């Protein structure tokens, strides 16, 4: 069977989509790492706990993880308030994480 007819081989469109997704993930990674570090410093938690908090807040607020991380990174250094929905989600998850 010729390679271009092999159903197990991804087509060019799916490969390009995958490349786009990977590039987006690479661009998002630094801000997520910064947000994790901030949570670790402020709340004295380990890296796994900080990441779980970010994930839980992302799910609770129905927003992308990279967007949650960006909000946190922008807010903390300037001592700016987070949007109320995010502040509530962070408070709830940090209380829950503290009780684990």
TrEMBL record:
- Alphabetical list of InterPro entries matching this protein: ANTAR, ANTAR_transcrpt_antiterm_reg, CheY-like_superfamily, WH-like_DNA-bd_sf
Q: Matching Pfam families, A to Z?
A: ANTAR
Lineage, top-rank taxon, reads Bacteria
The ANTAR domain extends over: 12-73
Q: Which SMART domains match?
A: ANTAR
Name of the featured protein = ANTAR domain-containing protein
High-level lineage? Bacteria, Bacillati, Actinomycetota, Actinomycetes, Pseudonocardiales
């Amino acid at each position: 069977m010729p390679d271009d007819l092999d159903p197990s081989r991804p087509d060019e469109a799916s490969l390009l989509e995958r490349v786009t997704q990977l590039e987006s993930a690479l661009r998002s990674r630094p801000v997520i790492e910064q947000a994790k570090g901030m949570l670790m410093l402020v709340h004295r938690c380990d890296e796994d706990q900080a990441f779980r908090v970010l994930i839980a807040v992302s799910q609770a607020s129905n927003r992308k993880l990279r967007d949650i991380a960006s909000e946190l990174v922008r807010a903390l250094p300037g001592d700016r308030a987070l949007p109320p929905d995010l502040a509530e989600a962070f408070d709830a998850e940090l209380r829950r994480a503290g009780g684990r």
